[in-house]
Amino acid sequence: MIEGQPGTGKTIVASHRAAYMINDDTPLENSLDKNVLLVGPTDAYSDHVRGVVDTLSGGSDRVIVRSLPSLMARVLELKLEPKGPASRTWRDVDEELGKIALKVIFAERQRKGITPTTQRAYEALRLGLVAPDVEWATYLRKLPAYDLALTLRAHIPLLAFIRWTVAPARELQGIEHVMVDEAQDATALEWMLLAALNEADAWTILGDLNQRRSDHTLASWKHVAAVIEYPDVDLRLERLERGYRSTLPILEYANRLLRKEERALLAFQKDGPAPVITRAGREELAITVRSEVDRLLSTYPKGTVAVIDVDPSRIRSLFRNEGWQARRGDQRFWDRADRQVVVLQPDEARGLEFDGVVVSEPADFPENFGRRGPLYTSLTRPNRELAVVHSKPLPEELRPRKR
Question: Which residue segments constitute the domains of the chain, with CATH numbers given?
C-alpha cells in the first residue's frame, strides 16, 4: 500500500509498475503470466493513464485500465449511465451486504441445483430471508426492483458483485494483479468485487485518506486489508513524502485543511505565486470566476486551465452565453478560438492536474467525518497557480490568518 498527499507521484508509480510487471525484460520473479488491472476513480483519469501505460508498455493489452464505475458497468453490461448518489446509506455498500448476497446465491444453488441469474439472486435477496437481524431484513425488503436498481448508482456495486459471482465476464478473467489508485474512495462492496476479480490475490493500493469523499468508504488501510482478506503480516505501507505537482505556496494553503500533524510535505517546486483569493457578490460569482480564467489563460498561454465547482452549471451557462463551445456530448470541455477550459465537479477532478485552477465557492464543498476531502483534492489540482473565488464565507481553515 502506498500513501501520499496530492502530487507525490502515486499515479506515476501505478502506471510504471503496471507496465513493468508485463514487460518481457522484467525478471520472472517480478513479472506476471496473465494480466494486470489498473483501476482509477473516473473515466477522465483512466483515459489519461491508459495513454501513459500504452507508451510504457508498447500498447500491450495485458494491462487493463478502467475507472471503477466503468468496470462495474462492464461487468453488468450496462448501456446507460446510472443516476443518483453513489450511496444513500452505509448499508448500500457495506461488506455485510456482500456476505448476505453470497448466502443467497449459495442457498439458491442448493435449492435448485443450478447457479441463479443475477436478477433471480437479487430478487431473492430482497425477500430478506437470510438477513442477520431485523434492521438488515427491513433494508433488504425496501430495495427497489431489479430493473429500477440497474438505473441507480447506489445499487450498482451490489449488482456487479452478484453478477460477477454468478456469471463472470470473460474479458475480465485472467487478472493476477489488481492496482487501485485513489483507493480511499472505494467502498467495502467495491473492494469485495475487486477481490473476486483478483485471481492471485496480488495488490498495489495507492491513495490518501485525507481525500476521502464519503463517510461510506473505509476509514483505514487495515480495514481495506481485512475486507480483501489480505493478511496483516504481508501488509506493507509506504509513504511518499515529496510533492512534485503543486508549488509550495499552493500546498501550504491547501494543507490548512489537514490536521497539524499531517501537514508536513516536501515540495519539489519551492517557488510560485501565492493563491489568489477573491470575494465576489453572489450574483457576480460566475463573472468573477471567468475573469480569473481569463487571467490564467493569459498567464499560461500554452498551459491548461480548469474550473472546479460543486455546481458547474452556473459557469457553463456563462461560458455558453459568452461564445464558448462545449465539446459535443461532453460539457466538461469548453473551447473558444484556440484555447480550452475544463469545467469540472470535484469528483471529476480526481487524479487530474492543470497549470492553473479556479476553485469556485469552497463553502459548498461537502465534508465527511469532519474532513474536507473534496475541497482538499480540488485545491491541489494546479501545478502552477491556484485561484479561489467565493461569495459565501470561506471555511474557517482557509480564512486570512490574524497577525
Answer: 2-77+169-240 (3.40.50.300), 90-165 (no CATH), 246-398 (3.40.50.300)
